[in-house]
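ugh finaly. both done.
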Amino acid sequence: ISLTPQDIVSGESEEESNGVNLMEFSDEILLHILSYVPCTDLVLNVRRTCRKLATLCLDKSLTHTVLLQKDYKVNKDKVKQLMRDIGKEIYQLNMAGCYWLPSSTIDHVTRCKNLVKLNLSGCHVTSLRLSKMLSTLQHLRSLAIDVNPGFDASQLSSECKATLSRVSELKQTLYTPSYGVVPCCTSLEKLLLYFEILDRSREGFMLSGQLMVGESNVPHYQNLRIFYARLAPGYVNQEVVRLYLAVLSDRTPENLHAFLISAPGSFAETGATKNLLDSMARNVRLDALQLPKAWINGSGLLQHLKFNNPFYFSFSRCTLSGGHLIQRVINGGKDLKSLTSLNLSGCVHCLAPESLFRKAEDDIDSSILESLVVSCCNLRHLNLSAAHHHSSESIGNHLCQLLSRLKHLLSLALPVCSITDVAANTEKPPTASNLVPQTFGRKVRIGIQTYPRNLGDQANQKIECSVFWALMGSLRFLETLEIIGSSFSSAMPRNEPAIRNSLPPCVRAQSVGDFEVAAISQLTYLQSLTLAQLPNILTGSGLINIGLQCQHLRTLSLANLGMMGKVVYMSALMDMLKHCKCLRDLRLEQPYFCAGAQFFQALSHCSSLQRLCIVSRSGTLQSDAVMSFMANCLEVIMCHMFMGESLTVCKNLQQSIVRSFQADRPALNVVIFPLLHEDLTEVIRDVPMRHLDEITLFKSRVAEEPPNLWW
């Protein structure tokens, strides 16, 4: 919500004419309404309308916590004025991802003398500026910063180090091999580390992960309760994290209750890490656990680790079998009512009794999934993607039927092949999507026959028998849903050239299409939807129902739907977008996608849209249509297009957008570049981490991290 004085005045006039005056509401009701207005609007605009609002807008409940992390309209001058007006009243300040603000903006944070929590992740902060700022924040207990090339801990003043010595929570994103400020934080209880170090410098030199290790820069972990490390691909990240872990292996903190390391690819176990894990098994009881797959596969570690009241487990990409999962993790169903988040993404044998002689495509053992559902009945986040979870023909034991018992689920990720009805792969009964002509290249009129309206008896009967329709009907409060093909891989992986060929979908997934997509429209409170590699999309008619029924949808990601040689769902997508008034993020990945005038005209109906990303091998775009779209959609601050156009066309369009709109949109980030160009990785490295991590790069995000890991 964004309000101006004119909005308030016009609102009062209209209400007075109807006999109702907004100012007659109680202070409690008005404070609740104002809590939805960005703090910058409250302080700089709304409070100037009348005396009553001037008082209410400065209420402690509204100024205690200031969130600027997605206030894309805020600029340096607004921050300066905000800090000048209410700086002493701010106790928590979140500026995460404000990449567009100049580093000098940080100087104004010194006015916030009472700050307890400060998040500057994604902001430009030098060592000297950090030192000056922290020297004045004596009450600070929680800090999040980036450590960029050129960071020098020796430039931190004694007053700054005194503040850091009192910090108990630290989130540090590393773009260069460094300990950052960790050695100065002698009272750490929560440490979150994000390793984003590239193996090569911009000049092409190989980087080293070796650090200067001495008494003065050894981390202090004696009070540590939570240790979390997330690694981007690359050997340098692995080298640096080992140095952080070396101190832990010498002496494991006795209060440690959450130990999480997220590492892609192969991250081999060493003698030091083995000693650390052995020490943890002897001395601590955990509530949250995530380890690299090489540390779990083939070891008896899980048998020896002790758990207290676990709330998060991630065994992503591990070869853990269902038998081990039941016996060693959930203890036959005991003490797992506390578990709220479980990530089994890429854990291909987790629903099978053993993995030694099993093929990844074999049917699951429904009794294992049933034990999991019964034991973890309070799950809110569950990720079963990137695996073949095929149900058998046993009645009542389909994966969808068992998952429907998890009534508290808020987010769910499933492979496409897991949602198909078993009968659909044997008898092939007619479905609603089969009613559409399947002639290649023939235009099909859509918009008349959608789900669930105007279906014949045959289609209604199919709905009643569909396990996926029943699952969607039982999870009415689901907010995030991902349906991703088990063999899907994005054409834009991190730090690598674009993938030119994709693997074919699973055989069991061949029947999943428009009919199943229509079932998703039952999720009234759905906020985020990801659909990838659904081969039987013929018209995309189910998307229209989602647009009509899921009015809270904010994030939509579609990838490789239907046949690869043609975007068969384009017409339905355009109809869908006309109804998505709350949509903020849209990501499309589809070969031969034509981003033309009709598409952008439909997209212009999404009045709340802020970020757009299109990835299309051999895709085309119309520059005039893009410019018109940007002019009409005033909220758009990110436009990423990786298409099949020439470098010249891409550069010209990118420059035109920046030149035309940057002045009015300080946060504007535009990247338009040929998808298969050899310099793609160099372009990607300049994308702000907020956009890169949240939308540009495709990945499953359900249960990716423990809930409420950071504020």
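ok and the 2nd:
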Amino acid sequence: LDVSMDTWNFYTCLVSLWLHRFYIYSAVGFGISIWIIIQFTTAKPKKKVTEHGNPAASEGIEDKLVNGRATLQAKEVYVAGVKIFYGSQTGTAKKFAKGLAEAVISLNLPVEVISMGDYDPDDRLSEETTSRNICVFLVATYTDGQPTESAAWFCKWLEEAANDFRFGKTYLKGLRYAVFGLGNSVYVDHYNAVGRNIDRWLWMLSASRIMTRAEGDCNVAQSKHGSIEADFEAWKARFLSRLQALCRGEKKPCSRKCKKGKCKSGKQSKESSDREHGASEYENTEAEELFETSSEEEADAEVAGGPNSVIDVEDLGNIMSHMKKAKSSIETVMLNIVYQLVWFVYQLLQAKINCLIIFCLFSGYKLIGSHSGVKLCRWTKSMLRGRGGCYKHTFYGIESHRCMEATPSLACANKCVFCWRHHTNPVGTEWRWKMDQPEMILQEAIENHQNMIKQFKGVSGVKADRFEEAMAAKHCALSLVGEPIMYPEINRFVKLLHQYSISSFLVTNAQFPDEIRNLEPVTQLYVSVDASTKESLKRIDRPLFKDFWQRFLDSLKALSEKQQRTVYRLTLVKAWNVDELKAYADLISLGKPDFIEVKGVTYCGESSASSLTMANVPWHEEVVRFVQELADLIPDYEIACEHEHSNCLLIAHKKFKINGEWCTWINYERFQELVREHERSGGSKTFTAADYTARTPRWALFGSKERGFDPLDVRYQRKNKARDISGC
């Protein structure tokens, strides 16, 4: 009986939530109570203040006594300038940007107005973490909550950076920003979605808000000030006031509740200012994220200098103050949170969101049917922009910008310690889900892939010829996640790929030997050999099968029977599997692969599913040394290629060294001809790996000065980033 994966995962999650509901409510209530008590009982240290009207303080100039004479010290620069980014479709955001620029110029500050379509965030945004500029984002929300055409790439990049462990949670720490969104509340489901998203993504990368996000409304019936222009003018006044405070070195704006000529919140002591000024002084808090939309009316009153002035909600004290004014109570807040939890469970029931879909939403995967997925590889994006291809480009000649990364099975039979999906995908030892047809999977995979490629149209740096080529996928890496070979119709799926003239690179975890034997010819078949002994394989791969070791050995034997190209893929994890050279050599003799890829493990960030740290990531020099020692133990093989940027090397069988030249690349057109002849003959006409080889260029060879980087492209080093040792 086929059971839908959606139903299976849904009921598992639902039952778990229901059985533990009282613990959840109690934990939430207790945590909030402790949090509130701490905030009320912890007193903030008093800071040294200065008097209003002190010219030396207001101008940032200090008197110092040097050799008995008073000298003037140059004032500290807290704000170097303002950069105004706009994403506009009808011109409103652009008009607002120019108006804001004129106002900033009147404050004698440098200002730059930038269209998001002309700006490359990958190259330049990280520079703002140390520039002491204030970045302002004026962004409109377009059809169905999407960004405007000019802002599409900026938003796409920012979203991926916020959810990509390779960037890190502090990638934009030090960048100071403010967001004003332009939208229409008539479209309630998508109202100001772009402004809210940009605000959230910047915050996730540790950028610092200088003030709460504001939202302008084209719907005059709902606009707080009668029109979007009036909304902007009100926000602009608050922004300019905040900007002036920042220029004076104030961490928080003056509340205008000063007594006896003393400012309670404006100036800090010289010692405190020296320590906290600049990009690093603005801290984000969870409270700011939770309560980020404060009352516009209160903000307007602040600009006017009213008695109940509030500029921003930056700490819990201010939050509780607002709540008291609104006659709210702590009990109301707790009930609200419980209500939100219940509402989420209700939405879970209504929408039937299961664990699998949540996995896809948070990882950027495009879900296909009930068990398949596709995702755009970062190397695809890199090669689109002429910044180099992946190691498969170097080793086998694929065109990375034309490669589609997909899987017909999100489920896996292992829970490897270095899995970069952090085990958010389902696991299992047999197929037990309702099966989608391969024709539907491939069609939707290609459509989703093309839609993701289309987002790069007009993006700065993207090469026009490569963009056009990328719309037609030429390669498919069946290695995205899970165990593709578990899919019952994997042979039909592979044949469909070949009918579309798409080469097939299939990866399996060596737990399904029968499926390997029954597999139809693929362009290149990989087996992951993550360890060389039973004990280390159990510790690293954490397989679900009880007879995992016998399955592993049988899979390698099945691989040796294949006539097309075969590859062992070794992932080195320091202190786990780098001391088993002789055992690896024995496994190579068993499976007789054509190639052996050896790669340093990729660190995927902290996870409760794995104990790996950066200490387990080998340096490239360590990987090279391991490969050299391994090659000495297998006389029929030599080191052929290297891709330093991926921390990866290729060992090849000597039969691919023809007349003294390595031929590790693939003649893809010849492969398609051979596989068509094989299918027309009903499988009687066979072919081997030697029938579709191509010469390997010199720059790809081990020992070349390029170290595997294609000289036709330009190597890009991200600014303000530590040396990358994580591989691809």
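summary for the 2nd one i guess: The domain at 81-248 is CATH 3.40.50.360 (Rossmann fold).
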